[in-house]
Structure formats: C-alpha cells, structure tokens
Amino acid sequence: MSKEKLTRKMLGAMGERLALEHLQSLNYSILAQNWRCRTGEIDLIGMDGELLVIIEVRTRSGSTSFGIPQESINAMKQQKVRETAQFYALRYQQLHRQLRFDVISIVTDREGRLLSLEHLPNAF
Fold first, then answer.
1. H/E element, 62
2. DSSP letters of 74-90?
3. Which residue stretches, if any, does this entry annotate as coiled coil (predicted)?
C-alpha cells in the first residue's frame, strides 16, 4: 500500500475483500456481496453447508483504543441486519433455511496491512 491515508471507504472495501478471502478459504459459498434492499445492506451472504450465513464485516485501522471493531455492532444494527436478512430469505425463497449471523472483525495498521482477522460465528 502507498503512504497515502486510507479513506473510510477504501478501508471498508479492503476489509470486505479480506473477509471474502477468509470465507472462501473455509469453503463457504458466497451468494452475495453488499446486498441491499429498503431495510439496509448486508456485507456478505454465504452458505456454510446448509446454513445461510449473514456476515457483517467491521474493519478498523490503527489503534483499538476506541474498542475492537465488533463492538460497533449495537442492538439497533443487529435488528436492522436481521430484518434485511429476512427480506433476502423471502426474495430468494430461502425461508426454509436456518440462518446464522457472523461477524468478521479486522484490524489493520494505518497503511492497510492486516494485523488481525477474527471470525465470530453466531455472533448475534
């Protein structure tokens, strides 16, 4: 990465790419990225065996003195993700599937080098 400061958008895109690569290494089938509907957006949607997995990706750069990335997913955000997941399941006839909500927490240094990636299955 160059010396220029990562923008929030660049950091988020990089985090989602790293999360996607991580999930693919675990043999998840990725069904959608940045899926949107009127209730919100889901970062990644995949299949882990027969489970439909909704993945929220949180990425931070630099210090974690303001908390770790997954701490930013409050009850309101969880509810919004759940509602959006229900719309996805309805739209793509997946209501019969068991849902799981995962979080992938990524920390990079200020230049964008990966420091940690934590996958939290069934996070909420």
1. none
2. -HHHHHHHHHHHHHHHH
3. none
Q: Phi first, then psi: what are they for 101, rounded to 5°?
A: -110, 115
Reported residue count of the chain is 124
- For residue 1, is it within any domain? no
Q: How many domains does the chain have?
A: 1
Residue 43 CB-half CA count within 13 A: 23
Task: Tell me the C-alpha distance between 107 and 113, whole Å.
Answer: 9
Please report, rounded to a whole number, the percentage of residues in the chain having pLDDT higher than 70. 94
Q: Is residue 2 part of a domain?
A: no
Rounded distance, CA 76 to CA 90, Å? Answer: 21
Q: Which residues of 73-103 are buried (b: 16+ CB within 10 A; e: fewer)?
A: beeeeeebbeebbbbbbeeeebeeeeebbbb
Is the model's pLDDT at 31 over the cut of 60?
yes
Q: What is the mean pLDDT of residues 2-13?
A: 79
